[in-house]
Amino acid sequence: MDDMFVISPFLIPITAIVAVFVLVIVRTLVRARVRELEIRERIAMIERGLVPAPEVDPRGFDRAMNRFERREYRYGSSRHRRAGVTLMGVGFGLIVLIAFTANEMSVAIGVGGFLVVLGIAFLINSLIDGGGAAELRTGPPQSFGPSASAPAAPPDSLRRE
Questions:
Q1: pTM over 0.85
Q2: Above 50 in pLDDT, residue 80?
């Protein structure tokens, strides 16, 4: 009976860990089955000569749009702005560090000033490059779910007879 009380505190975390693994596996299997059914539905539509609307696969459409937005954000002007501000901060930090530790103000301004000037160049680059990226992200929100209006039937040129 004493052995059961020694083991019991460890049963709760072990059970929780096993339950989480089982939950993740079941969720993955359910998502795979739903995705397989969505793909079969699209194939059946294409075989009948219908063109599936993008609203049929809203998650895929949302993933593609998120990839586009991330790419635009990553390569947009904000990337240069962040790099410029970071480099200016590091440059000013080096100026202060070298000036106080070595008492060499000219060396401090030379080393830290280089990074500050590089940061200013990045900041100016972000201001020059900043026109197009902001316009792409500021459009009105669009609905792509099942409530979005979709054409009832494809054009006659796309139907199979």
A1: no
A2: yes
